[in-house]
Amino acid sequence: MAKRKRRGLVPLIILGTLAVLLVVAFFLVDSGLRAFAQDRAETEISKRMPASVTGDVTVTIGGTSVIAQFIGGNFDEVELTAPKLTVDGVPASVHVIARDVSTNTAKAIGSLSATLDLDEAALNQLVQASGSAPADAVLTLGDNDVALTASVKLFEFDVGYSATATASAAGDTLNFTPTEATVTSGIGDIDATPLVNLILQQAPIGVCVASYLPEGVELSDVDISPERARVTLESSTLRLTVQSLTTLGSCAD
């Protein structure tokens, strides 16, 4: 009787072993497909980046089974990392998370959130390239603000000043708004108070970055620290097509 019971268990043991092997095989294949899909995505992104953009991009596909996501026509999350990207000569570290990414590239990504880290030199390069700041303007990164040195024209004299400015971001523009200012040169014994007030009342220095970004990608926040300016970008209209990725925004004159 004991032998019969053991014989009856043999098919169950075999079936159980086969099931385990099939599960292992599925995950091995799935892992291989994930690696293949990530490598393919990196290659395609490199091909489709604008000519003004250089640097390596690493792609990570999140979620559970890549096979199931592909069959369902949607990837839960795709992460892109580019620690040494250069856009029009401006170096930056970029991190992107795209969610609800359809395998149909004609459809917009559900949501895209990205951070762009600029060091002090890169930020100044971006400011000067914008043409909207004084030619001699220099920004120094601080804790939650920036120090700004520049000059203004007053009665044919170049008057130097230093200011503390807060940073904000909206739409396609980074804004630097002076909150404190000190005149540093150029006016002799003249009372500097009116000039300081003029500096504080003037419109913020606006740095448009639309020409660096695909249309539909907008700035939502900026965080300043002594090490970097971290700009947050968002989009819900971007599509993974050549046209969408290479059609850049424009800045109003």
Average pLDDT number: 81
Strand content: 35-45%
The rough form would be described as elongated
N/C terminus separation: 93 Å
Number of helices: 5
pLDDT < 50 runs, ≥5 residues: none
Proportion of residues in helical segments: 25-40%
Rg, please?
27 Å
The structural class is alpha+beta
Main sheet: strands, sense, barrel: 7 strands, antiparallel
Order of helices and strands: HEEHEEEHEEEEHEEEH
What is this structure's SSE topology?
Layout: H1 2-48, E1 53-54, E2 58-61, H2 66-72, E3 74-87, E4 90-102, E5 111-118, H3 120-130, E6 138-141, E7 146-154, E8 157-170, E9 173-185, H4 193-201, E10 205-208, E11 218-224, E12 229-235, H5 242-246
Antiparallel strand pairs: 1-3, 2-3, 3-4, 4-5, 5-12, 6-7, 7-8, 8-9, 9-10, 11-12
